[in-house]
Amino acid sequence: MIHQDVVDPRTGEVYHRMPTASSTESTDAVRAAAIAFETWRSVTPGERQDVLLALADAIVEQAPELAAAECRNTGKDHAEVLEEEIPAAVDVLRFMAGAARGVPGPTAGEYVRGYSSQVAREPVGVCALITPWNHPLGSAVDKLAPALAAGNTVVLKPAETTPMSTLLLGEICNQVLPPGVVNVVCGDRDTGRALVVDPLTALVSLTGSTRAGAEVTTAAGLAGIKRLHLELGGDAPAIVLADADLAEAAEGIAEAAFYNAGQDCTAACRVLVAAEVHDRLVTLLAERAARTEVGPLNSRAHLSRVAAYLEGLPEHATVVTGGTPTPGPGFFFPPTVVTGVRQDDAIVQHEVFGPVLTVQPFTDEDDAIRLANDVPFGLAASVWSRDAATGARLARHIDAGTVWINCHGVYATEMPHGGFKHSGYGKDLSIHALDSYSRIKHVMSRTT
To answer: Which of 71, 127, 173, 265 is catalytic?
Structure first.
């Protein structure tokens, strides 16, 4: 049996060895989900609501254990996970528990004379849910809740470096849900590929890098016509106008840039600022970065990847603060601010996924919009201005799935989250998430 080392990123030490699912075990998990689907698909929305609410309550009861597993595996702050991330996950479950009972849609009626029509929303079947290492528990729930609420069964695969909280979540699900409705398999990229190409998998929902999204798309296409839900990379701009409250902007941007050590797809990693206030904002950001402590990066390999962006900076770029890995055990990299970058630099065009932000000046609004949109990604952005009309005007022209005004990284379960371009497609959160996990059927009857 093949095993995967599970490492504590704060110390760099192995603390668990996780068996990797074999191809047979992956197939068995999909088969179990397919068998369970035949019963679960017929459970009424009200009954599914009761089960999901019970699952939410069970997570609340076992929140300390879940937080401990998540923090040991990711290096996150325990209080942050316990007080913010787990309540957010519970809120998603409770929202989705009721959402499936009130999904809007076309009403039944006679749209062609002599024929009666009705529209049915059906589950798609077995869903393969593949989650990332930056938010393993939260991402699992964001996928699990709408999939189950819509009447699907699932096979859930966590990232190979962060399986622990997902395994505990799977145990909790099996205490509440019927057998086979939720299955968890652990493994590497090959395990995920096996789920993607399995003929009984109807939908693949992936949160990960754009590279991973492209690989899943290719594999799913070769396996046949398979539905995809992709939440991929981001390279979020934060546009700061000359009239903005610079202290407020610096605080909000730094919080969004360095949260979870910058390992967040919506991190405010590209600051675009009016040229006349550029130097002042850089000073404020550098001061904020210097007094900010962040947790570790996910792995030694990811630490090397983040460091490589700084080591490979062109001569015209300047590191204002940070820029080199923190000595000692674990995989730490300090909050970093870089100025003097150009639009075609790798650190601007690529997703660094670490506690690193770049600062670029712009000359006018058109220049700001051009710089904001001139990257492959389109997940999120923010605009900072005291003028509401300016914020609204720029938001219309920014090519991103979420645009915040005078804030960044604030979520509401009732509002959709998802991107454009290389950031993928499909929405998490909100009632719109149910669209990815449902199919629509038109039934017409002759009445005359």
So the answer is: 265
Measured CA to CA, the distance from residue 395 to residue 404 in angstroms comes to: 8
List 25, 231, 269, 351, catalytic entry: 231
CB within 8 Å of 298: residues ≥ 6 apart: 9, 74, 75, 133, 134, 161, 162, 263, 331
pLDDT tens digits, 30-69: 999 999 999 999 999 999 999 999 999 999 999 999 999 9
Q: Is 211 left (phi over 0), alpha (psi -120 to 50) or beta?
A: alpha
Distances, alpha carbon 150 to alpha carbons 44, 310, 318, 441, in Å: 10, 45, 50, 14
Domains of the chain: 3-232+423-446 (3.40.605.10), 236-412 (3.40.309.10)
Residue 265 falls in the annotated catalytic set: yes
Burial 273-290 (b: 16+ CB within 10 A, else e): bbeebbeebbebbbebbe
Phi-psi region of 157 (alpha: psi -120 to 50; beta: other; left: phi over 0): beta
**Buried b vs exposed e over 95-104: b needs ≥16 C-beta within 10 Å?**
bbbebbeeee
**231 in active site:** yes
* pTM given for the model: 0.94
Tokens 């109807």, residue located: 202
The Cα 353–Cα 351 span in angstroms is 6
